[in-house]
Amino acid sequence: MSIASAPALSARAVAPVASKTRRWLRRYGLPALGALVILAWIIVALSAPALSPYNPATVDVTARLRPPSFLHWLGTDVLGRDVFTRLVHGTRVSLTTGIVVVLVGAIIGTLVGGIAAYVRGRLEELIMRLTDLVLCFPPIILAMAIAAALGIGTTNTIIAMLIVWWPKFARLARSLVLVQRSQEYVEAAVVMGLSPTRILLRHILPNSIGPLIVLVTLDVGNAIITFAGLSFLGLGVIPPTPEWGSMVSEGRELIEQWWVATFPGAAILTVVLGFNFLGDGIRDWLDPRSRRR
Amino acid sequence: MADTRSRLSSVRTPATTGTAVLDVRDLRTQFFTDAGIVRAVDGVTFSVAAGETLGIVGESGSGKSVTALSLMRLLDEPARIVGGEVRFQGRDVLAMNPDELRALRGDGVAMVFQDPMTSLNPVLRIARQLVETMRAHGRFSDEQATARAISLLGRMGITAPERAINSYPHQFSGGMRQRVMLAMGFSNEPALLIADEPTTALDVTIQAQILDLIVELNRDFGAAIILISHALGVIANVCRRVIVMYAGEVVEEGPTEQVLADPRHPYTWALINAVPRIDRHLPGTRRLTTIEGAPPDPLGIPSGCRFAPRCPFRIAKCDEHPALLDLAPGRKARCWVTQSGEPLPPPMAAQTATAVSTAVPKPSETAIAEPLLKVRGLVKHFPLPRDGLFGPKKVVRAVGGVDLDVIEGETVGVVGESGCGKSTFARLVVRIHEPTAGSIRFAGQEIADASAAVIRPLRRRMQMVFQDPYASLNPRMTVGDILSEPIRFHGLTESARETAERVEELLAAVGLNPKMAIRYPHEFSGGQRQRISIARALALKPEFIIADEPISSLDVNIQAQIINLLIDLQERFRLTYLFIAHDLAVVRHISDRIAVFYLGKVMEIAPAEDLFKASLHPYTRYLISAVPIPDADAERSRARLPLAGEPPSAIDPPSGCCFRTRCPIAKPICAEVTPPLAMLRSDHLAACHFPGQF
User: Fold this and answer.
1) How far is A222 from chain B (nearest CA, A)?
2) What is the DSSP string of B317-380?
């Protein structure tokens, strides 16, 4: 009798389940795409000299502002430099600065924020008010001011960005450590008589790292844009070093010669999107509610 | 025998003589996970007659909650109902469209969930939520619904319902919220109420209040009730009929008294015998009856009887999967062993191996010596954030002056409801928290205000086992690292090899495979994790262990295993325990002496037997009376002492005796003079102006 009644079940109750491949694509499709894009750009950065047909700094005024052709795949700029070559070489500067700023900022921020949350009291108050102080300025304006004060150059720009960058990691790390420090395994470590440094570094921080990794991945794109922005404003790299932001900047008044600004802009777009997709994926993967057995 | 059998099998589903409100046939719910298909509910058949009370028992993962959710079609992807039939008042629930389903939910069938803290919307007033439920089904106008909401809240035992209805959920305690949930459940006069572990998150005195209310509601409103619980005592209290679930199947069904008195499935037998009972304590039987192993992996269910791998009574035929076989009118069991009609043997006969119990030196013999732990006037206040810049300074008086001695070799139990300060007390003793005032002497040394450096050597002698086996192990360290870290930090071993040997020794001591040291905590079940937690506490070879609710988040059979383990270890390593729990039966079973906490103070301290036979404090009497007993006859014949109300706030405790606001024998003196904890009989202390007069 029970088997006979099976067809009576509504379609909703017994509809077929999506295939394994489709479920994988739905869950990991975009993050995988993001990872592929980033991987492709990293390969481009590593093999830049092999990929590019010209020298990025070679000026050829006779061939200025040529449209894309077989000779110059993405055209040439005002000084007749090959856009494709400069784009490929620019990958190195953009990716490196983005990753360096975020990683160093994350490490400094996590340690400072972690110590604040673990020690509490006056030190925490001091550190957190300092982050408030930095965070209340628009990041790019503050970075601009500091970079301008330090002088033009890649290293100086990175230092300026770091000063702006660490507070958000400190805030996040503090809130994560506050959650973890009341967990029972931390209390167990206290009862064991372990030293506070050991408890913070060995027990609390490894368990707080998940959301920080997500912020790191999502933020690399952000840092690349900011660095490109600073370069666009003339504060980043020293010319003629190829860099995406400064390339966009050079092409910004050339409406007819669209290729000069469009291709580096598109490059920035793909890297930023790639890191965002990957970051979203890692966030979902680390969130236990979305991770099913 | 054959004669009886044929007579029995001719009686078909006699429990459903009334018209069935709910008829479930061969219900199958499966989870389509990446790892494979989990058959959470696998061919469950039962029915509920109008006005009947049915209990569903089983340990976590047995499929009891998934069954309840399937009945209402409340499951989301990746869970799906793949087969079977659910008929509510003759209508096919599985064939309903969304509109019909919505009409069914909350109107025909209502549901009350386990966690009252999250089942009300925190941003809406109670009135809005209750009225919304009634208006949604178009039965009542706004005014009618509001009037009805007030009368329902009054019926649920909420004082001043006219005022309460305009409160927000956070202004209510857990017990009060569960009353609101019940009011909401009954607001549309449903024919069936499904209550999924409605009292699990509540304290025992509040649990007793809610269970009494459910029984009354069943009587007065005539709604059938399905009560889902892991605790047999709760079921015995409320339900006429019970079904027992194991690994997605019904393994036994029958009238509650019969099932509890004479279980015919070995799993039911194990469930009943694993719980220590408050009304029946046999001196000398320190070990509880447990069954081996854990429920089967839901991805790899055995093809024969699903319980066979753990069953102490298995026979050759158990390789074949048994059907739910008729035993007697209304009684069924999925077991080949009890098919002959014979009852299962009493527990002691089944486990002769561990029946021998060595006597532990009783505290009275060594009472002259200085106690290992001596706590005097211990106070802990937690500051609260001020209301505004110039608001008054407020504190939570978590522990308000506790005196307690623990003598070497004994087990002292600490019981009390949540918020009574028992966990804070434990954390003060091990100095996770700094005491506000008072003295803690451990092994003759004052540690209440000692620095971390002074305490560090003492940490080796005093360890702690925590409540939550999922939170108490660092998820990013292997078990081996977790166990070796304290050993290496304190330099207890000479070489890495010695450390590894010690880790293996520890794992073996708590009954785990030493090879498991390379695994991470998430690869273990709750019970195994608690064993790891115990092994970690033992790593430093302590003499004193504080166990803070070490078994309260485990299933009953696992609880029994852990209790037995703790008793074994105590005898083997001569340990002293401070055992904190809210389950009185367990505390009585394991403890030599028991301290009863209420609102941060000790109400009574007495040897376990004396406390249960002749308690002197009224609160203790209430507490004992509120514990449900897994025996339907005993449960119904017992007069329960109704303790009204809830514990007052620890921010502003009552003056004098803190229990006076709920005490039936309180006199004016109780508000003025705080009764001291006085020795009233030998070894029996109580803080009451009128001890033993209630």
Assistant:
1) 30
2) GGGSPPP-EEEETTEEE--SGGGGSPPPPPHHHH--TT---PPPPPGGGGTTSPPSEEEEEEEE
